[in-house]
Amino acid sequence: MRVTRRFWVYLSCLVVSALFWLLTTLSKDYSTVLYFPVEYVNLPEDKIVITPLPEHLGVEINSFGFNLLWHKMRGGLRSIEFNADIDNMKNYGENNFFFIATSSKLSEISRQLDNELKVIDVNPDTIFFRLGQRAFKTVPIKANYELTFEKQYQLAKDISIEPPTIQVSGPRAIIDTLSAIKTDKILLQNLSESTTLKVKLFMPTAPNVGLPIEEVSVSFPIEKFTESVSKVQLDIINLPKDYQLKLFPEEVELVYLLPLGSYEEAKAYKFKAHVDFNDTKAESKKLPITVDNAPDFVRSLRTEPEKVEYIIQK
Length: 314
Hints:
This protein is mostly beta strands. The protein has 3 domains: 99 residues; 87 residues, Beta Complex (RNA Polymerase Alpha Subunit, Chain A, domain 2); 90 residues, RNA Polymerase Alpha Subunit, Chain A, domain 2 (Beta Complex). The strands form 5 sheets. Strands 2, 5, 6, 8, 11 and 12 form a 6-stranded mixed β-sheet that branches. Strands 9, 15, 17, 18, 20 and 21 form a 6-stranded mixed β-sheet that branches. It has a 4-stranded mixed β-sheet with strand order 4-1-3-7. The longest helix has 22 residues. The radius of gyration is 38 Å and the shape is elongated.
């Protein structure tokens, strides 16, 4: 079927008419409601809001159709700041129960919007605030981690966290139950060198609990370890005045792992170990050995032998 010239003329007239109608319609004033995310500012620092607050405000707007269409098509409306200073609140008749009439905020909201938009009304008409006293508590930060190492590598000393503590704020009943704040889970594999990471804090699930920071620095001191041996003379404790205790052997070896960088320090260190005369009352033929003094950097410490034979002499 051939399209005639008359059809194209008719179609062009129809399009032009529709455009004129649309321009005429959109040039008129209209009212509609736009829902803006709301951000509450200037809340009292020593208080917490116990009841949930509206997350959006329904703002009735009057403007040309062009402006309203543009804002609805754009989507992702920007947040409106709502001044919740305690001086703007009115007491509702109960302790720590306040309200703000949103009609008092029309000019404040209007200043945050485009000049072409006229604010007529805001919904809800009233926002209620039940306030509670904010409590503060300083607690340690603990790293939640799982590590694996290359052969012969281990943690050379305790991990370090910066900052090591954090001041938590929130309702007294919740804050009093907190003993520490943990980090998110840290998974590191096949470690062979010291590592420092920025790690997010695990936010408590309890409502109205606030943390002043979101992440901390966690350092893992990794070193290569080697086995070393030190000899030590056994001391005897709780020995009665008129008794003697003969040990076989009197000197034992301490076998342990230590970082390569601490090898000379360990050699100069004075290890101490002892047996307890009171253990002879168990009528065992051998006495267990207890190590009293060893540097913090050694790992997997054991004695060879683990027990010694003895003879009691009066």
